[in-house]
Amino acid sequence: MVMTEIQKNIVGKVLMDAGVMASPVTEAWINMMVNSYEMQGTLMGTSPLTEMEKDEIINTLHASLFVRIDRGHCLKEKDHTPWYMAAKAELPSNFWDRYRIYLQKEQHWNKDTVNELDKTTDDIMDLLGNPDSANGFLYRGLCIGDVQSGKTSTYIGLINKAADAHYRVIILLTGTIEKLRRQTQQRIDEGFIGLDSYAFTLEKDSVQVGVGAIDPSTSGWAVTSTTSDFNAATAKKIVGQLSNINAPVIFVLKKNKSVLEKLEHWLRFYNANKTTKKIDLPMLLIDDEADNASVNTKKYGEVTAINKGIRKLLVLFEKANYVGFTATPYANIFIDPDTKQEMIDHDLFPRDFIYALESPSNYIGARSIFGDDAPYGYMLESNNDCELALPMRHSKEDVLVYMPESMEEAIACFFVCNAIRDLRGDTKSHRTMMINISRFIAVQNQIAKLVDSYVREAKREIRNYYLAGEEALQFDIFKLMKMVYDKYYMGVASVSGFSDLKHFSWEQIQETIYPSVSRIEVRAINGGNASKNLDYEKYEKEPDDIGLRLIAVGGLSLSRGLTLEGLSTSYFYRNSSMYDTLMQMGRWFGYRGKYRDLCKIWMPDESMAWYSYISMATDKLRDEVRRMQNDDMTPTDFGLAVRADIQGLLVTARNKMRTAKDYETVVNFSGEVVETRYIHSSEDILRRNYEETEAFLLDIAETCPVHRNDPGLALKSNQYLNVPKEKIIDFLSVFSAHTLNIDFSVTELLTIFREDDQKIFDKWDVLIAGGLSVTESFSIAGLTIPPVKRGFAFRKDTKSLQMSGKNSRLGSKDLAKGGLTKDIVKQMEVGQEGGKTLSEDFYFNTGIKRNPLMVIYPIKLLIKPGDKDYEIKMKIAAAIDFPIIGLSIGIPRINGKKKEIIRYKINKQKWMELFGADDIEDFDEVDETITEE
């Protein structure tokens, strides 16, 4: 929700003042400046600020002034000729200047963040073609950002600079949903055009918005609007021929076959040179969510409709650029992955540049929520009990039989969250809860009705008793809200990271709870109703200026691109086999400054595991961009490296599985850590693995004595140093790893160990992982070890236990230091200061010589009441009175040594076993109201 004009003016002025300060900004300085500008206003006749309004200003300034963003990293073709920085001195900067001011005054960005965006967009502009060049060109690039991290602000900045540099035609492709297109069009109106596109396309009086209020003399030319996608008749009426328009013309389009065909036809018929059949105007095409619908997933020689539409637009212009923006770039890198040449030759492969954008310091992304030491891991809660109410695998005829306890708890959290935000004075902001547990519209609508009934009944009870003091706690909804307050919110006041936030007692919350929850609505968000039911803008015009408070129930419409304003509570129970869309489904990623302590996410343990895994894979990909930039490598080199990455194989092979043929690829194993995330459920196999592990440890102890609490080593764990390769080979030869561990193929591993001619595998270090318990322990090979406790999912079809939950991996990243001395670790970490968490892979990729490492995990299965398959899990655990053994292996990348590679082959059946799908098409999201064209 927007602040009052008085509040916005004060925030803008203070940010401008902070931008020219030589000394650091302090709390006292902020308060002084706010008071000073308030006093100036009252002297000029404006009303004094209320304490609540002043707090909102100060909170907004805090959120803006202390945000930091780092420079991105880039790979580019070696023959690229820089041009932009040299030309910039002679170019106008009207578009960029007013956007820069808009970001500071209206969006409350601080000076440093704006400057970093300035540098980033300079970098990307320099990678495009020079629009004033006498020669034609077609450049293709990809920008990699995080989900909900502000990629839109980046490409709007790029559009403004392109307009200043004389680009005349800009085509912006959004997702496949009209609501998202309209949302993006509004951002373009405010950040680039400067006019209300709806009024403009109807040729009504100009209505200035956003940047238009800063400099109305500069304007882009809208052909689409917040109410209409491309329409040839409208384009003919307001544009005619592009060459006659003395301003940059922008089209904001859905990725829709019909829309792309209509635009291409209109451009070609009215604007192409009759001789060359091309348009001689420089064009920039930006493809938002470039991995969605744009990638050609058909076999070589065939083209999908959207992909074909984009290609035809690009070749229609003499000078054209394609820039994709995405948070999940694997599909773009794996375009036509059958051969190297097919990948390079593909029309949309980013062969000219790949730019990895950095997220601001206040961004909450996957790496902040999932995995070891995640600072926002407290947000996660399990909802495995949803399986009994609505199975994860269900049809469109199924219904949510009842409200699972976890869903009732999530709704109660949303109620309490609303009250706390109101008490903090944050009354104007939109608040949203998301429920995403089905891909079928009929089921979503039924869920919405059930939730609406529950919420209405709860609100009636709250209205009747919220002023009754302790007596209210005899009623179920008050008991539940008090329980979630005690469980999730009462203790946060003592957390150091939340010291800037106000906290309240249960009594204060109860006294304000009804006014806070009375406005909450429940709506189904799907198909054609998304625009109407997710209309935040309408509530910005309400008389009392209170934002929309919404429980949004949906599937596809909630899963990609749409911004759920003020999202604080998420309830997610979806098939984890939809692996390549999981990150986009994560609408909870983003910025939660004023209410970051209140956010909660419910999801199944298996989904937590997948999120953790894909987060690590994506971080690794971004790290690879940094490393290859330092080595002056190209996008083609990067594409080949990603195609040879183990996690990349798992993330992207799905498209290849649509065909019946096997998918075979060569995978780089140097610098990798692999582990047995899937473990046999058979007691006999588990017992044999335990006995073989104990025999192995007793054997190596005879020549390699165990080190524990060694002052010279980086870790205190039990470790065996310089174990001969032959001992490792003998052990792995008898150890049974489940075949679902496709990146832990014992046969392939033994082959590279045996055929090693570089002596990388001659000596090994072995570490036994231990848990944190002081009351439980296992005895193995004469050692007493606290067990590593891990949650798990039981896979009946494959007779496997999948390690899952918040700690989805077998162990922590610190165990990668196994076998290393403190001095070596210090040497490896030189230059890595600055608070960034180092990954497990990092310690195997420094280039510094070290032994390969095997970590042995003695696991105790962790089972919680309400777990999916609870009774079966209890039966499995009861039958096992010994530690379950899991393994991980880390292979160092050593300077001067060639890469170790493994050839992996996956067939369709193996892939479906891995992801638990009956059919490959089960991966696809279904929205029955959207016609595929």
Q: If you had to describe this structure to a student in words, what would you say it looks like?
A:
This protein is of the alpha/beta class. The protein has 33 helices and 26 strands. It has an 8-stranded mixed β-sheet, sandwiched between helices.
List keywords for this structure.
single chain; alpha/beta; eight-stranded mixed β-sheet; 26 strands; globular
Briefly summarize what is shown.
This protein has 933 residues and is α/β, with parallel strands linked by helices.
How are the elements arranged and paired?
Blueprint: H1 5-19, H2 27-43, H3 51-65, E1 73-76, H4 84-88, H5 94-105, H6 111-127, E2 137-144, H7 151-164, E3 169-173, H8 178-193, H9 197-201, E4 221-222, H10 232-238, E5 249-253, H11 257-271, E6 283-288, H12 305-315, E7 319-326, H13 330-333, H14 340-345, E8 353-356, H15 366-369, E9 380-382, H16 386-389, H17 405-423, E10 431-436, H18 441-465, H19 476-489, H20 506-517, E11 521-525, H21 530-533, H22 536-539, E12 549-554, H23 556-559, E13 567-572, H24 582-585, E14 600-603, H25 605-630, H26 635-643, H27 646-652, E15 663-668, E16 673-675, E17 678-680, H28 683-701, E18 718-724, H29 725-734, H30 746-754, E19 763-768, E20 778-780, E21 783-785, E22 788-795, E23 800-804, H31 822-828, E24 853-862, H32 870-878, E25 884-890, E26 901-906, H33 908-915
Parallel strand pairs: 2-7, 2-8, 3-5, 3-6, 4-5, 6-7, 9-14, 10-12, 10-13, 11-12, 13-14, 19-24, 22-24
Antiparallel strand pairs: 1-8, 15-26, 16-25, 17-23, 18-19, 20-21, 22-23, 24-25
Helix pairs in contact: 1-2, 1-3, 5-7, 6-7, 7-8, 11-12, 17-19, 17-20, 29-30
